[in-house]
Amino acid sequence: MFSPSDLAAIWLTLKLATVTTLLLLLIGTPIAWRLARTRSWWKGPLGAVVAMPLVLPPTVLGFYLLLLMGPNGPVGRFTEWIGIGLLPFSFRGLVVASVIYSLPFVVQPLQNAFEAIGERPLEAAATLRASPLDAFFSVAVPLARPGFLTATILGFAHTVGEFGIVLMIGGNIPDKTRVVSVQIYDHVEAMDYAAAHGLAAGMVAFAFVVLLALYLLNSRGRRS
Amino acid sequence: MRPLLLALLFVTALARADEVQVAVAANFTAPARQLALDFEKETGHKAVLAFGATGKFYAQIRNGAPFEVLLAADDETPAKLEKEGAAINGTRFTYAVGRLALWSAKAGYVDDKGEVLRRNEFRHLALANPRLAPYGAAAVEALTALKLLDANRPNFVQAENTAQAHQFVASGNAELGFVALSQVMKDGRLGEGSAWVVPASLHQTIRQDAVLLAKGRGRAAAEAWLSFLKGERARAAIRGYGYEI
Question: Which residue, A187, B62, B133, B210, is the most exposed by fewest CB within 10 angstroms?
Fold first, then answer.
């Protein structure tokens, strides 16, 4: 049903989504934690910056990433200086773009989960002489488990569905940047509708299963 | 009140009749903009332009997009639309013959014989996806004819269309790339950077055809736009952008 290049695109997409989700959990957790606990003036600005990819068209993000990460952009100069070369047209570049693009989908569920915990469990942990780090891992993380699940699923699924940015900075290179959404686009543009249907129907099924799983997890979490 | 409303309706109907909705291949963006201005001055009609990939326009037209004229990047898509009844029989004609250019945003980077391809000292060579875009297909044909395809293929970065290939090169992310000559030429001269105009003998002729679509049947503005494109004044302007016609 799928051609070798379709399968390569599927594999690449899963790899990209996995790497991106892991990185997002690492980066997003401290951001969400700070956002949830702080009452400082920068909570608003930071929250707005994190949420911006929700509102900005992917073409805007892609366009600026192309310029910033290019040889004349500050990010491009930096990556060349540290010796990893330019990021556009590379898997690394897609990971960076995906992390930015999917950031709010990971940070916001985590932030909500952390906020729902409230002060008391952490204060209780502190009176038992738990260090803040200890309290975070043995109290906050287990209590925020549904938030982590939601964040992981949404971050992964949203990266799988990414298209506009990849189109702008990917360069459509097999095994490096040609992900499923781009492959579908190519099939449609080349008027190969049969091949497009195979992959597109797969994406629809994937989206439904993911969201159904999320819904079931959430309703179960609420009952228990 | 009622006469005013009627007059308003009449005016809007009139204004709408004066517009022609044109789907334009991305490589023809710059000349089409200028031609639309000239067209409006000459006839009073307004050409409303949409730019994009020809394959996408095909899908949109087949699914009821309100375009009245298609200026395609190839000659196959208009013929196909005609055969499928989405375009009017006998209205097809070649409005431009495209030329391919190897272009870099850096001055002096591309020599006037394309030797830079033989040296292969670059990381990225941008081109439009050969499966989708005639200019991409022409680039692959030219590389094949030069026996340089295998050497250069690992450096390929493929764009959705020639406009995006141009963007990859213009932003410096690709050192050089194959674009339509029309994208880097203005008033008969190379704008910036360096380029090699690929000899037309190295690839199939890039014949770009226009066609009147079913939605444009009997529309005065659409027919005026097509005859304007066939006129010598329009042709001279088109040649100024590096096309042959």
Answer: B62
